[in-house]
Design goal:
Number of strands: 8
Radius of gyration: 20 Å
Bound molecules: iron/sulfur cluster
Structural class: alpha/beta
Shape: globular
Largest sheet: 6 strands, mixed
Order of helices and strands: HEEEHEEEHEEHHHHHH
Length: 294
């Protein structure tokens, strides 16, 4: 933690970055995002198992991007990032939403975070995204900080649920998701928390024509959740922030993770893992599998 505060202070002092997007402690088992713009405030930064937010979501926000513009020049934006958050940064660069040279990644080694604030960190309270995680050290960073510790070993809850859903008949599966989506109140917290949901105008906000009904009822809810899952397929980096933000506890990870597995099996592609690879949806190869469409 001291290394993090020291580095952020130096980066702000020598004007390598205009701001550092990081975490601030709220109480002993909760943090919140903070944008640090002065060297003095760098002492507020922390990193621990309560740093749940994927801060990459802020990198595409106009208000944050404007912070980088100072006296006619553009400085970098610093960001404290867990390895999974770095996958989102890489995906944003792959999708031309960000330039690698415009961001200073303070990559943190990570052994996992809790499911929710207020919990003691243990195998039982480990966030479900951390169970299958295979990147506890940053794939890309400008500085790499933090201890490397073992992640608690627990069963993969999301995979088990996916397998259970796959055993259902088509009708049962449809009813299962319909029941879950019926709970949706169209608050769009899932969209707001997602680093890859950066469209200036979401399809669900378009009214001429209206593609997705905005009131929360069965038909519109189903369209919204399925459309969002499709828009994120082959792009989702699996940070779990949409599900964590959902006030109705809709199991959005089931869809996102299943789509990710499909992209992996059909195209050997996982979003946000390589700066040298074109995006899956933005590239075409005659050798691509077309089994999906059969
Ligand atoms: S998914 Fe991996 S990198 Fe992300 S919080 Fe969990 S253990 Fe850390
Ligand atoms: S869809 Fe959900 S899990 Fe995937 S990148 Fe967006 S917030 Fe993260
Ligand atoms: S966060 Fe949950 S309730 Fe809100 S729009 Fe998304 S799926 Fe629906």
């Amino acid at each position: 933690m001291e290394e993090l505060k020291k580095l952020a202070k130096e980066l702000l002092e020598n004007k390598t970055v205009a701001a550092v997007i990081g975490y601030q402690q709220v109480d002993d088992k909760r943090t919140k995002p903070i944008i640090v713009t002065t060297p003095e405030d760098a002492s507020k930064l922390v990193f621990n198992e309560y740093c749940l937010n994927n801060l990459a979501v802020y990198l595409t926000k106009a208000r944050i991007k404007n912070l980088a513009k100072q006296n006619g020049t553009t400085l970098k934006l610093g960001i404290v990032a867990k390895p999974c958050d770095i996958h989102a940064i890489v995906a944003l660069i792959q999708e031309s939403q960000l330039k690698r040279e415009d961001v200073y990644i303070i990559g943190m080694n990570c052994h996992g975070v809790v499911k929710d604030y207020g919990m003691d960190f243990s195998g039982e309270t480990l966030a479900t995204k951390c169970t299958p995680c295979d990147s506890h050290k940053p794939l890309y960073s400008d500085s790499n900080l933090g201890e490397v510790k073992d992640t608690p070993k627990v069963s993969d809850e999301v995979l088990e649920k996916i397998q259970a859903v796959e055993k259902m008949s088509h009708k049962e599966r449809f009813e299962y998701f319909k029941k879950e989506f019926d709970k949706c109140i169209k608050c769009y917290a899932c969209r707001a928390a997602c680093p890859l949901c950066y469209c200036q105008r979401c399809i669900t906000d378009k009214t001429v024509p209206r593609w997705v009904e905005s009131s929360p009822h069965s038909r519109g809810n189903f369209s919204w959740n399925v459309v969002r899952a499709f828009h994120l397929s082959g792009r989702c980096i699996g940070c779990g922030e949409c599900e964590r933000a959902c006030p109705m506890d809709i199991p959005l990870s089931l869809l996102n993770r299943r789509m990710t597995e499909t992209a992996k099996q059909a195209f050997a592609y996982v979003s946000g893992r390589s700066l040298d690879t074109p995006t899956l949806v933005g590239s075409y190869d005659v050798k691509d599998s077309d089994e999906l469409f059969m």
